[in-house]
Design brief:
The complex is a heterodimer of chains A (416) and B (147). Chain A is α/β, with parallel strands linked by helices. Chain A has 18 helices and 14 strands. In chain A, helix 3 packs parallel to helix 5, helix 9 runs parallel beside helix 10 and helix 9 crosses helix 12. Classes of the chains: A alpha/beta (416), B alpha/beta (147). Chains A and B meet through helix 2, helix 3, helix 8 and helix 10 of A and helix 1, strand 3, helix 2 and helix 3 of B.
Chain lengths: 416, 147
């Protein structure tokens, strides 16, 4: 007997009428829902599923195959997040072959279920356009914070198995960010520092996420010195960093995001009391908090989240006519949609001429990073992605987070 | 360091959690947790240098920490760790997030949050802990000397 109120359809699913896979899915969803006090389920319009070989390994892949074998079928449009293996370059890069087979198995199982193997974490930029009020089951933290904050859609972090279960049942427990009361801003963040490139927005997310590190908090940004409207990529980096450093699923930005036309609206009718001030010089200090052990730069990575076509163009321009130092490896990660356009527009040729490698359908920190570090002796990784700098530290790297132009200059010099 | 157990029993209470009744030795952090960001799953040890449990093994432990860190991979990684015998027996958070609960349900790991008094402040590494998620109850048998 569940404390969640189930409708006739949910009772039918639990009774096995949609098959064993959907039955198991709903059962686990109920346990999670009960934990968070969900009163009932809410239907979702799409699911975005996270499952890469690095996270899943044999146990997770077996579980996924078992579900597929039980006849699991997605009942809402479902897309999948990046892979751990770059299907074209894995051998050149030196990725362990055992992961290649695991990734093929994952993709096969997802395809069997009817999920699209798009291998992207920027679905909201290239595939799925979340709408205000739309209930979703998305399972990449960067996608969720975008959907909630920038679009005003509604999703919790529907991680690995949870996203799959939502795709099979077409619903999620109604708790967290599906509820209006959870979406109210909880802390004001007054930003006095200047923001320039996308990396500055990631630095802001890093700084605030370090302090407001609680899934249930919702920071409300008030930008006092903004010279122009932020671009989609800038908001992407802000959100990805907030989600990574702070496990945050939503932010407001007064005058910018749809549920924050005023500070009072963002607070759900009243201005939140707690306030943080991001003073001039804070972002510079944030970059500097990543202290290099050595001058030499082994690896420079752009992506995380995957690059948009505009970010790709920017890198192509910065690298035009320049050569990356022989001791430094530069990688760009993006999705197939952007790569295809970048090829056609000449951006791929431009970065490759400089010596960079463009990887598709992956993200560096899930790409067997520890094995690559051990194989190639990578230690210092330089990136303009605050999110990547955060996660890669657990894989035996020394991450250095710097603005894009600093990363490019260092790659050419081979040193910071 | 003295191994003398004081035998003192302390009870923490909170809302119902997930997972089976388990007991084990506590491993307490003053920081948050993510299986991807912090752990080498092959060795079952904390591998992030900045983590206060760096180098410590979490296999079979009752892990006590403050919050869930960012990311979704822990939802898969607990299952992987159980498969390899490296998983903690239970995780007690001050406050947790959906990713951790989803991963605990999949893997059959016990998980509780919002316990009173605060587990991070109350439990010490080395204490013996009994976890009953359905009852929202944690019992601590003091073993570790106060530091």
């Amino acid at each position: 007997m569940s404390s969640m109120r189930l409708n006739a359809e949910e009772e039918a699913i639990l009774g096995g009428r949609w098959g064993e896979a959907a039955r198991r899915a709903l059962e686990q969803q109920i346990r999670v829902g009960e934990f968070f006090g969900a009163a009932d389920f809410v239907r979702v319009t799409s699911a975005h599923l996270s499952g890469d070989a690095e996270a899943m390994r044999e146990a997770g892949v077996r579980y996924l195959e078992e579900l597929a074998g039980l006849g699991a079928r997605c009942v809402v449009p479902a897309t999948i997040n990046p892979r751990s293996v770059e299907f074209t370059y894995w051998s050149l890069l030196g990725q362990p072959p055992r992961y290649v087979e695991l990734e093929h198995r994952i993709v096969r199982a997802f395809e069997q279920m009817g999920a699209l193997p798009v291998n992207t974490c920027i679905n909201y930029q290239t595939l799925s356009q979340p709408r205000f009020g739309e209930h979703l089951a998305w399972g990449d933290t960067g996608t969720v914070i975008w959907a909630n904050s920038v679009a005003g859609a509604r999703s919790n972090f529907e991680a690995g198995p949870a996203g799959i279960f939502a795709a099979l049942t077409g619903r999620v427990p109604r708790y967290g960010y599906h509820l209006p009361e959870q979406r109210r801003g909880t802390v004001v963040v007054r930003v006095l520092d200047r923001l320039q490139g996308t990396s500055d927005w990631g630095a802001l997310g890093c700084h605030v996420g370090r302090m407001v590190n609680d899934y249930w908090q919702v920071p409300v940004f008030v930008f006092e010195r903004l010279e122009s409207e932020p671009s989609a990529d800038q908001l992407k980096h802000l959100g990805a960093a907030l989600a990574s450093y702070g496990s945050l699923a939503m932010f407001h930005a007064v005058g910018i995001t749809p549920e924050a036309r005023t500070l009072q609206e963002a607070g759900g009718g009243q201005v939140p009391e707690p306030e943080l001030v991001v003073t001039s010089g804070t972002l510079a200090a944030t970059y500097e908090s990543f202290v290099p052990e050595q001058e030499a730069v082994d690896l420079v990575v752009f992506g995380t989240p995957q690059l948009s076509i505009f970010e790709f163009r920017d890198l192509a321009r910065r690298l035009a006519g320049r050569q990356i130092h022989p001791r430094t490896r530069m990688l760009l990660t993006t999705n197939a949609a952007v790569k295809h356009l970048a090829d056609r527009l000449g951006y791929t040729a431009a970065v490759e001429a400089a010596g960079a490698i463009v990887l598709t359908g992956v993200c560096y920190y899930i790409m067997t990073a520890r094995e690559l570090a051990e194989r190639h002796g990578y230690r210092t990784i330089l990136t303009d992605s605050a999110k990547l700098a955060n996660i890669i530290a657990g894989y035996g790297y020394q991450p250095i987070f710097r603005p894009t132009e600093v990363c490019i200059d260092a790659a050419v010099r081979g040193a910071l | 360091m003295s191994e003398q157990a004081s035998g003192e029993l302390i009870v923490l209470q909170g809302p119902p959690g997930v997972g089976p009744v388990v007991e084990g030795e506590a491993l307490v952090s003053q920081q948050g947790f993510s299986a991807r960001y912090d752990v080498d799953r092959d060795r079952g040890v904390f591998s992030r240098v900045a983590h206060d449990l760096y180098g410590r093994s979490l296999a079979g432990k009752v892990l006590v920490c403050t919050t869930a860190k960012g990311g979704i991979a822990t939802s898969w990684m607990l299952l992987d760790m159980v498969d390899r015998g490296m998983a903690p027996r239970a995780i007690l958070f001050r406050t947790t997030n959906p990713v951790m609960v989803q991963g605990a349900v999949l893997a059959g790991v016990a998980l509780l949050h919002q316990l009173q008094p605060d587990p991070v402040a109350t439990i010490r590494s080395g204490d013996w802990v009994h976890v009953d998620p359905a009852a929202g109850r944690v019992e601590i048998r003091r073993r570790a000397p106060s530091s």
